[in-house]
Specification:
With 471 residues, the chain is an alpha+beta fold. 45% of the residues lie in helices and 16% in strands. It comes from Actinospica acidithermotolerans.
């Protein structure tokens, strides 16, 4: 009988091999992983079980997300096939074109597992950005035509890789030998190419956007960053500086405060000047350097409901306004004050106000006096019938992603606001890649609802408990 490798094992093996490859190419990434592990071990010792409130230490330590950039819908569709082989589906739509003051002419989605059991096995994600050459704010007609011709003439992924990917997705597994070949080809596809870069063409695109040059100025793609997860990102930030590694100016996302961790906090070390061979106008080759890859790290919090996310976005606007009116006060202090004034300070209040997603579970210490359980999840928790566990936020924030991009750009680029931007949304990406782009809120809502249905069954109820009292 031929041994086979299932999708989640392919995903785990791919993440591990990609991590080893990236560590060889970018040694500072290995330092980042080592420091993240040290911080996580220290937090676990200090906090015990509370440190694993948002995932076991085994999951947190293995967790990675990568980021890649492609140039065309055809390339994006091929990426979807490769990640489909790993049990990863496109989730969420992110438009970074207006999320940063610098020129970032890309739209994005993230490929990841979507079922809770698959996320627990290996939660590998890849934030995948696609260039938008048809957006006239960034590319005039002549440059667009040249860029599209360049992109149409390249092949990022060999046919053998795509054929194996399609087989793995269709069958849910690969024979051991085919799996090994698939993994070799897939990792190789995301290595940094040694092919000389056309210096003049790269610089032409770089004047528009460093991101556009990284995507459309070369004949290959590569991992731009690979991100470990850390339990204390502020301590990680401090320790990386002590190792002599230059970090970006701030941590993106929510502030550190006394209440629940929500959504996602991210930071990175600055993009490194890496040696690259450049082809000059006279055809000769010289050694230069390009800054395109960096080392990101993240701390994940509780997934917010649509109402919670709307509140988060309002708070960002409020922080911007108050920070602008108080230039002498650190922005982090402003953010903490705004958070304390407007966001619930406990997980229970976050759930009770319908702002965060939780799963609900029958409590072993529930009342056994013959009383009837209450009809809302909040009361079930308050009276000891059930416990609530926060659902980890598995996705990304456009403004934070753009902030990481912007902090690692060599220049601001150019953007002509005299033109209207090209319309792009999740439905358009779905059409490009011929598969649905899932709504992350729907996934969290389903996970919460399924837990309530199980709880109702265990309580012997004919109806699900109401989710919460509140909006």
């Amino acid at each position: 009988m031929v041994a086979t490798i299932g999708q989640w094992r392919l995903r785990a093996a791919f993440a591990q091999r990609l991590s080893r490859m990236y560590g060889r190419e970018v040694p500072a990434y290995t330092t980042l992983v080592d420091v993240s592990r040290e911080v996580n071990e220290d937090v676990l010792r200090a906090q015990g079980a509370d440190a694993e409130r948002l995932g076991s230490i085994g999951r947190v330590g293995a967790e990675r997300h990568g980021a890649i950039r492609v140039g065309t819908p055809r390339e994006m569709q091929q990426v979807a096939r490769i990640f489909g082989a790993l049990g990863m589906r496109p989730v969420g739509f992110y438009d970074l074109r207006d999320a940063a003051s610098s020129a970032v002419p890309v739209v994005s989605t993230a490929f990841r597992p979507v079922e809770a059991a698959e996320l627990e096995r290996n939660p590998f994600r890849v934030f995948t950005s696609m260039l938008t050459p048809a957006d006239p704010r960034f590319f005039d007609a002549d440059l667009r035509a040249r860029l599209e011709a360049f992109l149409a003439d390249r092949e990022l992924f060999p046919p053998e890789l795509l054929a194996l990917a399609d087989r793995a997705e269709a069958e849910g597994e690969l024979p051991e030998e085919a799996a090994e070949r698939f993994l070799d080809l897939a990792v190789s596809a995301f290595e940094l190419s040694q092919e000389p870069v056309d210096k003049a063409w790269y610089e032409t695109l770089e004047r528009v956007s460093a991101v556009a040059a990284d995507i459309g100025g070369v004949r290959s793609t590569h991992i731009n960053h690979l991100t470990p997860r850390v339990l204390d990102i502020d301590e990680l930030y401090r320790r990386m500086g002590a190792h002599g590694i230059e970090m970006i100016d701030s941590i993106q996302g929510p502030p550190r405060w006394h209440g629940p961790d929500v959504l996602l906090r991210q930071t990175s070390f600055r993009a490194l000047a890496e040696p690259r061979t450049l082809r000059l106008a006279d055809g000769t080759v010289a050694v230069g350097s390009l800054r395109v890859r960096f080392g990101e790290v993240e701390a994940r919090g509780i997934a917010l409901t649509r109402s919670g996310r709307e509140l988060y976005d309002r708070l960002l606007t409020l922080v911007d306004r108050e920070a602008a009116s108080r230039p002498d006060e650190p922005r982090s202090d402003v953010a903490r004050r705004v958070w304390a004034e407007h966001l619930p300070g406990t997980e229970r209040d976050l759930a009770a106000q319908g702002l965060g997603y939780f799963t609900y579970h029958l409590s072993p210490a529930r009342p056994r006096d013959g009383s009837r359980p209450p009809g809302t999840a909040d009361e079930l928790v308050r009276q000891g019938w059930a416990t609530a566990r926060p659902i980890v936020y598995e996705d990304f924030l456009p403004r934070s992603a753009a902030g990481i991009f912007q902090s690692n750009l060599s220049g601001a680029g150019s953007k002509d606001e005299g033109h209207d931007g090209m319309a792009y949304d999740a439905q358009r990406i779905a059409a490009d890649i011929d598969r649905d782009v899932l709504d992350p809120f729907d996934l969290y809502e389903q996970q919460q609802s399924e837990s309530l249905a199980r709880l109702a069954q265990e309580l012997g109820s004919t109806q699900w408990p109401s989710r919460v009292a509140g909006p």
